[in-house]
Amino acid sequence: MFSAGDHRRSARMSWTKFGLWQQLLAVALAAYLLPLIAPLILFGRLTRELQSTDNTQIASTIAASTALLIFRRVTAYPGARALSFIVPAFSTTFGIAAVALLLLRVPYSGPMLLTGYVASIGFSFLLGFLDQRSQGGRFYYVPVGVMRIVEDVPDVEWIELMEPNLPRDPHAAIVADLRSNHTAAWERMLAEAAISGIPVYHTKQLRESLTGRVQIEHLSENSFGSLIPALAYRGFKRSIDVVSTILLLPLLALPLLVIALLVRFSSPGPILFRQRRMGFRGVPFDVLKFRTMKDRPPDSEGDDGRAAAITLDEDERITRVGRFLRKSRIDELPQMFNILRGEMSWIGPRPEAVALSHWYEKEIPFYRYRHIVRPGITGWAQVNQGHVAALDDVNVKLHYDFYYIKFFSFWLDVLIAIRTVGIMLTGFGAK
Question: Which of 120-129, 130-139, 169-178 has the lowest average pLDDT?
Answer without folding.
Answer: 130-139
